[in-house]
Amino acid sequence: MSDNNALLLDNQLCFALYSTSLAMTQMYKPLLEPLGLTYPQYLVLLILWEQDGIGLKDIGERLGQKSGALTPVIKRMEQEGLVNRTRQLHDERSLNVLLTPKGQQLKAEALKINQCLLEACGIPSRELIDMKEKIITLRESLLKNQSQ
User: Fold this and answer.
1) For residue 98, is it within any domain?
2) Which GO terms describe its cellular component (predicted)?
C-alpha cells in the first residue's frame, strides 16, 4: 500500500471493525427494545444464561470491562426484576449476580433475536462462524501484545 493510501479511513482495519461493531449494535436495538433491554444488559444476560450466579468481577472480565463500569447496568437490571445481587459469604466486597425467573424467561426471546441477526447478515452461517473465529483470534493477539 502506498503512503498516500496508508492513512485512508477505508483502508484501516480498526475502522472496519469499529463501524461494523456500531452497525451490529444498531441492529440489536429494535430487537431488544420490545424486551426492555439495552445491548449491555443483553450481553450480561448472555453470560448469566451460560453461567448463572457468577461474580460481577467475572462478568466484567468476560466483557473486557471493569466491574465498576457494569455496576449501573446491573443495578438497573435488578430494579427491572431481571437479576438479584448477593454478597459472597467469604468476601462481602464481592457480588454475585443471579437471574430471576423473569430474567430466565427472556432466554427464549433471545433465540429469536439471534435468528433475526443471522438473516440480517446475509452471509452463510459457516462463513459467519469462520469470521467470528478469526475476530476472536485477532482480539486474543491484540490483548496478548498489550500485556507485554
Assistant:
1) yes
2) cytoplasm
